[in-house]
Amino acid sequence: MLRKAMKFIRDESAGYLANHMARLFARELQARIKPLGLSTGTFPALLILWEHDGLTQRELIEHLDVEQPTMANTLARMERDGLIVRRRDSVDGRAQRVWLTDAARVLRDAATTAAEEVNDRALAVLSPSERATFLDAMRRIIVAMQAGPSDDADQ
């Protein structure tokens, strides 16, 4: 089936708006966590490790939905910056587990407070019910996007 060519309107594009909003969130978060010696590139991995220390690289990839080379580079930076150490798994010698250092553990409260402040500032324009609806919609969209392309993507 041929589709009629439509004019792309960026301010009506969910993808464009989500990307723009993500960049604004990242810029403000970066300004707040840079004094802690952190970056927005390592922050997602830290969030997961603060909840589940000792994951493998593969488990981190699954949690963060990133490519293996991206995760490898992120972990190399985190190791260089003294945030993590990697140790061989005691059961599977081929796997390495990623462990937070004491230096990374003490940053948790300050870093997550900074993220909460960015979220609160950004979402202050929404009522509590709008905020809940917005977050629910984003979670559902993420799940749908993680499921992969729909059948009509080939057309």
From TrEMBL:
The keyword DNA-binding applies. CDD domains: HTH_ARSR (cd00090). Keywords: DNA-binding, Transcription, Transcription regulation. GO terms for molecular function: DNA binding; DNA-binding transcription factor activity. Residues 1-143 form the HTH marR-type domain. PROSITE patterns: HTH_MARR_1, HTH_MARR_2. Gene3D superfamilies: Winged helix-like DNA-binding domain superfamily/Winged helix DNA-binding domain. InterPro entries: ArsR-like_HTH, HTH_MarR-typ, Tscrpt_reg_MarR-type_CS, WH-like_DNA-bd_sf, WH_DNA-bd_sf. This is Transcriptional regulator.
